[in-house]
Specification:
- The chain has 3 domains: 35 residues; 64 residues, Serine Threonine Protein Phosphatase 5, Tetratricopeptide repeat (Alpha Horseshoe); 82 residues, Serine Threonine Protein Phosphatase 5, Tetratricopeptide repeat (Alpha Horseshoe), CATH 1.25.40.
- The chain is mostly helical and 255 residues long.
- It is built from 11 helices and no strands.
Length: 255
């Protein structure tokens, strides 16, 4: 009704004939139909429609990627009583992906008790992940998530079991290797095992400055080995010769 009123007023204003009015109205209607059709086919109106099997698979892959991207633990501010000096100055060339032997023999026990001190939100997440892994124990992303919540709850052994099984499923996953490096070096206080996992992660991503710094900090803070710390930066610079952060760090170590 408003559309017809508008056309009548428009025709009076410009003194158009009824033929011209009908022509303009037809064009406007055609444009409106096209806009509606294009919007509908672009998927903006299909948000509530059931997803196809392919769409569900793509969504799951995207969710797993987001989950993996979030699992990079920060170094804790703790002190260590040991300072192993074995192999001082030894440079370990990284030429091919390394796989750490985790000696995984079975699927971790999903009925492992949850510490009483864990908050309800973390407890719910652990139970949700356990439920998902009961249905799909080969899902490495869920094991990653379980390890994260186990670690946050203070159950470092539970985190180790979850992450080592994830690594068993995906030995070429640098995120899993890095998390195990952090866990062994800064929570389980096993510097040599931590070194193995950091080297494995670097072998998979030799251009990663972040991983190179992880290894450097392990040598500096846990091993307290200045020679190996310096050697790790020199090794990093061979793959990243123009990196200003590594160059400045090496210059600082030379003072």
């Amino acid at each position: 009704m408003y559309f017809i009123f508008f056309l009548v007023q428009f025709s009076r204003m410009f003194n158009f004939s009824w033929r011209n009015i009908l022509l303009i109205g037809g064009v406007v209607v055609a444009v409106g139909v096209f806009v509606i059709w294009n919007t509908r086919n672009s998927g903006l109106w299909n948000k509530d429609e059931p997803k196809t099997e392919q769409a569900q698979t793509e969504q799951r892959q995207e969710d797993e990627k987001e989950l993996k991207d979030s699992f990079s633990s920060e170094l804790p501010g703790v002190e260590y009583e040991f300072a192993p000096q074995s192999g001082a100055g030894e440079k370990r060339a990284i030429t091919a992906p390394l796989e750490v032997n985790t000696q995984v023999k079975a699927i971790p026990d999903l009925s492992r008790p949850i510490p009483d001190s864990v908050r309800q939100r973390e407890r719910d997440e652990i139970e949700r992940l356990n439920s998902g892994l009961t249905k799909d124990p080969s899902n490495a992303a869920l094991w990653l998530g379980l390890g994260l919540y186990r670690k946050e709850s203070g159950d470092y052994e539970g985190a180790r079991l979850a992450w080592e099984f994830a690594y068993h499923l995906q030995p070429k996953n640098s995120v899993i290797a890095e998390n195990l490096g952090v866990l062994y070096g800064y929570y389980l206080k096993n510097g040599l095992k931590s070194e193995e996992f950091f080297l494995a992660a670097i072998a998979l991503e030799p251009s990663s400055i972040h991983l190179r710094l992880r290894l450097f900090e392990l040598y500096r803070d846990v091993f307290q080995d200045r020679v190996k710390a310096r050697a790790s930066i020199e090794e990093a610079l061979t793959d990243n010769p123009r990196n200003e952060q590594l160059t400045a760090l090496l210059r600082e170590l030379s003072l």
